[in-house]
Amino acid sequence: MSATARQRRARSAAGGAIVLLVVIVAASLMIGARPVPPAVVWEAFVRPDMSLPDHVVILTQRLPRTVIGIVAGAALAVAGTLMQGLTRNPLADPGLLGVNAGASVAVLAAITLLGITQPAGFVWFAFGGAAAAAIVVALIGTRGPEAGNPAKLALTGAAVTAGLTAVTTLILTTSVLALDVYRYWSVGGLTARGLDTVAVVAIPVVVGAVIAFASARGLDMIAMGEATASGLGAHVGRTRALGVIAAVLLCGAATSIAGPIVFLGLVVPHALRTIVGSDYRRLLLIAAPAGAALLVLADIVGRVIAPPGEIQAGLVVAFLGAPVLIALVLRRRQVAL
């Protein structure tokens, strides 16, 4: 495929992802246990009246969970793209840095030591735990022989995750309160949180996204091999350090407000690579709206498939992501990094 054709396909994919996101956001505001007509949704924003039940539902429930889905989905997709580029592994995901495990231990500590039982109260603890675990993995993985080697980074992440998972299991088996509260947060959901939680992580998400996009050129160089990248004048160490920092900020923020969402950061970049190729400038740009659209869509599906209850978005993403990933892996024509 020529460069012009790739650029045209990338522009089409970006436009399609943005349009899809807009449509899904509109659907998220209308669809639920109580369907709301488009005209009422519009009126709730231009002339809000909190005495009307539909306006209350839209502004206090559906709007916050939609915004959280957009922020968390975009952050996880961009972070997953970064991790796949840094490790040159198309099956890498944000969990490689121990983010989910670190956030889980921090949340359990907040429950057992401080008595915090509301998801909105976990934000800072989850973010801090996720960031701390990722920093430990990064520090260990970038020291000693073969510092910064993708395989060493992956093994370090697996080791730290295993250790933190053991701590999580120990706490859950000794505290009934921790088990009752944690099992809701751990499935990954967008409910029981307000827009104030998004404000808490807004700066880390923006900073992480800026660093990620600034690292795109370096990721393209790393994809050709470290020796080649260095020969072409790329600063491999600096690119990898910036990428890890961006992934920590994005993963920590997303996990803190939405819980440990699995598969999204893996499937979105892997699927986009089959459409737009391996140019990380395009991948990162399109991954953000695509990831946001997928998570909000999963939340919508979770609202309607098991009435009168709901299934958390994290579970829906897992159900949707697993078969898609299997299909991508089994494709005969694979797109190399």
Task: Write the SSE topology.
Blueprint: H1 3-30, H2 38-46, H3 53-87, H4 99-114, H5 123-141, H6 150-172, H7 176-186, H8 195-214, H9 216-222, H10 226-231, H11 236-258, H12 264-276, H13 280-304, H14 313-330
Helix pairs in contact: 1-3, 1-13, 2-3, 3-8, 3-11, 3-12, 3-13, 4-5, 4-6, 4-7, 5-6, 5-11, 8-11, 12-13, 12-14, 13-14
Explain this structure to me?
By secondary structure, the chain is mostly helical. The protein has a single domain, classed as ABC transporter involved in vitamin B12 uptake, BtuC. Helices cover 75% and strands 0% of the residues. The protein has helices spanning 3-30, 38-46, 53-87, 99-114, 123-141, 150-172, 176-186, 195-214, 216-222, 226-231, 236-258, 264-276, 280-304, 313-330. Helix 3 runs parallel beside helix 8. The chain is globular and about 65 Å long. Mean pLDDT is 84; it is low at 332-337.
Kindly summarize this structure in a few lines.
With 337 residues, the chain is mainly α. It has helices at residues 3-30, 38-46, 53-87, 99-114, 123-141, 150-172, 176-186, 195-214, 216-222, 226-231, 236-258, 264-276, 280-304, 313-330.
List keywords for this structure.
337 residues; ABC transporter involved in vitamin B12 uptake, BtuC; mainly alpha; globular; ABC_BtuC-like; transmembrane helix
